[in-house]
Design goal:
By secondary structure, the protein is mainly α. Helices cover about 75% and strands about 0% of the residues. The model has no long low-confidence stretch (mean pLDDT about 80).
């Protein structure tokens, strides 16, 4: 049996109320587990009630953080020594800013403080890179 979509729930309405509605609906239908033909609809309902634009934004920030480590690992493997490529700092800054925005939205002081300091460090390293490049160009 398919769960009915409830159009009275706008996407920005109280998520907990929405989750409670769908959980009660499932229980009222005495379904301990949805039938296989209900699975796509059940997944759609779960995604609709749990995944927001902020969650997607936070995941994008975490993806950028992951990429900085992968990029640094590949560069180190190619050089056969530990290296810190310039792009590492750009991935760090992008991921840090996005996760910082997500942390502010979530009002999570732990992530706000951690990412705020990280963004400062990433900007400082990018400043040193740019200063070194401009100094190298002006000397030649």
């Amino acid at each position: 049996m398919l769960l009915p979509l409830n159009p009275s729930f706008p996407l920005k309405r109280d998520k907990e109320h929405q989750r409670t509605y769908y959980a009660a609906l499932l229980l009222s239908q005495h379904q301990s587990r949805p039938a296989m033909n209900d699975l796509p609809h059940t997944i759609f309902i779960w995604l609709q009630t749990h995944v927001t634009a902020w969650v997607v934004l936070g995941l994008c920030g975490q993806f950028l953080f992951m990429m900085r480590f992968i990029y640094q690992w590949i560069a180190s493997e190619r050089a056969r020594k530990s290296v810190m490529p310039e792009a590492f700092w750009y991935f760090s800054l992008g991921g840090g800013l996005i996760v910082f925005a997500y942390a502010v939205h979530q009002e999570d002081i732990v992530f706000i403080l951690g990412q705020g300091l990280g963004v400062f460090i990433y900007l400082r390293n990018i400043y040193f890179i740019w200063r070194h490049k401009s100094g190298a160009v002006s000397k030649s």
